[in-house]
Design a protein that fits this description.
This protein has 374 residues and is an alpha/beta fold. The protein is built from 12 helices and 12 strands. The protein has an 8-stranded parallel beta barrel with strand order 1-2-3-4-7-8-9-12, surrounded by 6 helices. α4 packs across α5.
Length: 374
């Protein structure tokens, strides 16, 4: 088992950097995760931030986390081609230890903006996802991983997610980021027990764990229920630390545990102090589960065989359904309207299984899509 490193998600954000600075001054941060594609709006990266990335890169302690690739878009888009070229250039400058991306497709007309939402688990989406993961590997030549999704429409999707992740990663011999707050969202939103849920994931493929906080959202669709949202704008709840305690020893290839929080949740001195304390609590859990020796010198998650990619895999029916779903979610005035329009759409009686979708999760999807609408 490799030595587990305590890390932070550190991006070019004044509030995040301010919160991370005391930890770095105390030499507690052993690695940083950088969302390399979040700088697409920046014309130039400041030299001091580049120096920070280079310092961790030189020690093989820099990991890259993608946000905007939209892995499952049914159509191969120019934005995805540009994303890969940016990754190739960035990976030539910085020595990433590995590269990861979010599961799902992005809402929004060009799938380059928005929030990741789930897709049907079919042979079509499996082939698209595998094709895209191969292309990510070709661009970076580093181990490639996927993060488990915080959002599902139904309990059936929740139970199938871990197996589908494993099938996706098989051709590239990839790994999983097990985001424990995402897992917490699924546990609470679908009233499923942790032991039942964690048994559905291939924990031998976990190389990275995320912990973060989020928020609760009241539901008009089910007034007796509060929906847990993966908003990353608050401190880590005790339940997520408990999940870390229960999970960490079950992941034999775990290398990084990463504390995440968005800058908009790190505005006050109190929030930054909570972030500092969260890191110390995470660090202590990691310390208790660490080996004395670093036994993981080699990369266990590189492709076992040469990969080949030709023409990008596409499915225009899936693409049109994604456009239709995004439009419905972005324009519906209520969850009831969204449910009605969905029932009249091309997604009805299809692989999307919308007939199984929980009304309170459709309501949540409407809120997510409209929050991120561009």
């Amino acid at each position: 088992m490799p030595k587990i490193l305590s890390a932070v998600a550190c991006n070019l954000d004044a509030n995040i950097l301010s919160a991370c600075l005391p930890l770095m001054e105390e030499s507690r941060v052993e690695a940083i995760e950088w969302s390399f594609d979040a700088l697409y709006k920046e014309k130039e990266v400041p030299s001091w931030f580049r120096e920070l990335l280079t310092a961790f890169s030189n020690e093989k302690r820099l990991i890259g986390h993608g946000v905007f690739f939209s892995l499952f878009s049914g159509k191969w888009l120019p934005e995805q081609e540009a994303w890969l070229k940016q990754l190739e250039q960035t990976a030539a400058e910085f020595r990433f230890d590995h590269i990861t991306e979010h599961f799902g497709f992005m809402t929004g007309k060009d799938f380059h903006h928005g929030a990741p939402l789930n897709i049907p688990y079919t042979t079509t989406t499996l082939n698209i996802g595998r094709d895209r993961l191969k292309r990510i590997y070709e661009a970076c030549r580093r181990p490639v991983g996927l993060e488990n999704l915080a959002f599902s429409y139904s309990l059936d999707e929740v139970k199938r997610h871990g197996t589908f992740l494993e099938q996706l990663l098989e051709p590239v011999n990839g790994f999983i980021i097990l985001d424990l707050h995402n897992l917490y969202c699924q546990l609470r939103n679908f009233d499923i027990a942790f032991d039942e849920m964690i048994a559905l994931y291939p924990l031998d493929r976990v190389q990275e764990i995320h912990i973060s906080g989020g928020s609760w959202d009241d539901s008009a669709a089910d007034p007796n229920r509060s929906i847990r949202r993966d908003t990353h704008d608050d401190s880590v709840p005790p339940e997520v630390f408990q999940l870390l305690e229960m999970t960490i020893a079950q992941c034999p290839h775990l290398k990084y545990v990463v504390l995440e929080q968005l800058g908009n949740g790190l505005v006050t001195e109190m929030s930054k102090r909570c972030f500092y304390n969260d890191f110390l609590q995470m660090e202590e859990i990691v310390r208790k589960n660490n080996n004395e020796n670093d036994a993981g010198a080699s990369d266990p998650f590189l492709p076992l065989f040469p990969l080949s990619t030709g023409t990008a895999v596409e499915d225009m029916m899936l693409y049109q359904q994604q456009l239709e779903l995004s439009s419905i979610l972005e324009s519906s005035a209520s969850y009831a309207e969204a449910m009605h329009v969905l029932s009249q759409s091309s997604l009805a009686n299809s692989d999307w299984r919308i007939e199984q979708w929980e009304p309170y999760m459709i309501e949540t999807a409407v809120k997510i899509a409209q929050k991120w609408k561009k």
